[in-house]
Amino acid sequence: EVDDDRGENGGFKMPEIRYTKLFIDGRFVDAVSGKTLESRDPRTGDVIASVAEGNKEDVYLAVRAAREAFDHGKWPRMSGSERGRVMLKYAELVEHHADELAALESLDAGKPLAVTRVVDVGNSLHSLRYFAGAADKIHGETLKMSRQLQGYTLREPVGVAGLIVPWNFPAIMFFSKVSPALAAGCTMVVKPAEQTPLSALFLAHLAKQAGIPDGVINVVTGFGPTAGAAIASHMDVDVVAFTGSTEVGRLIMEASARSNLKTVALELGGKSPLIIFDDADLDKAVELAINGNFFNKGEACITGSRVFVQEGIYDRFEQKLADNMKNWVVGDPFDPRVNQGPQVDKAQYEKVLRYIEHGKTEGATVLTGGKPCGKKGYYIEPTIFTNVKDDMIIAKEEIFGPVMCLMKFKTVEEAIGRANDTRYGLAAGVVTRDIDVANRMARSIRAGVVWVNCYFALDSSCPFGGRKMSGFGKDDSMHALDKFLAVKAVVTPVHCSPW
Ligand code: ADP
Questions:
Q1: Is the pLDDT of residue 498 over 90?
Q2: Rounded to a whole number, what is the largest CA-CA distance in the chain?
Q3: Is 362 known to be catalytic?
């Protein structure tokens, strides 16, 4: 339930918002049009800040700066270890400003401060440091050829990267693209989501302080169909790395196809299965289902929103789930007791509530939640549906909110079939003590990651990214570098020709 008695901001001092302009070529500038967009506080719907609304002209200026920094600047020409050193300095600065970054993130996206401080800032730092360490470990191969030729490959930075990111983990998403792009030696234009522009601008300021040369990181805040689309269709952008909805992913591929065939990497939606077998540790399974669905108020592409529970444990699982949800607190993200803050904005709030209504009219049963809560802002009760059929809309479409579908199954074969019966293929969770079942599930589920006896277990050293309509290309791990590197073969005869 929402706790409204804690006073303004739960007694927490709000962060000062210092950066609200576009960051182009190392300077904060107004949009060419002079327009601004409003970033709102999801707790109230009130305006937090007016931020420059970048458009096509601004994207053009940002790409020009990135192009210049790539073609003539030192970043792509520095050794990997030098780049790594600057990135470590950047990480130091982010760590030094961890509290401010966490507060900005909580304010802009409605996430519990205790979580942003640990998870969002922590993962951002891991990412930067992982790729700082990767920067001097990018190397090619020597080639053994069938003719009297010798050759090797170079892995060169591909050029200017367009990085379009969503609002659910603004800082983590920023670094999931920026860190590998920096390590590879690319220059870039980042477009944060219009709902959450504040952390990216703050991070651009810290990048400059760390000594990342002007023009290497540019940030254009603005809307998707204008600023985002201008990046995707720009003739001088060499790669677009995107995280967001499947619909927009499709638009980005289309824009690439219609313009310069830039490389595209897409991290899109999901409807991931979390499969709990009879022999699972019940407490652990319930905890994984709760966190796997309601962490970050369900605003995560990897939520395990289809929870399949084997029939032998089902009734006890359902009971315990309902009981444990009584301790789950929805409320002001600045209150340390709170587990779940408000949805990011009005549009998302309304969309999630529409799905909940769909679930009810389709005949699913509400076990917990099922309605909005709080006197103001975008709070929704964590909602669990039972009696869900695989073909109901709530079981098929990505809801991106605190809505869990609970379903019963009998056999391993059935679980595999139903888990894979989706257009998506992002993540999956399996909870069992039987190693054979775990292995079989891990190999049979078509997804980018299978978590066994854990969920949401992301790490900078572990490749992340989906299959099917969840997209392609990886974030995190050395694989994340691939999209920012072009492979070039160099070939020469073994015996020098005399002329
Ligand atoms: P969501 O539905 O979760 O808001 P979106 O896919 O709409 O996710 O947004 C993710 C990012 O893509 C945001 O930065 C958004 O501004 C951007 N975006 C939205 N539409 C387009 C578009 N047509 N072209 C490029 N980027 C877009």
A1: no
A2: 87
A3: no
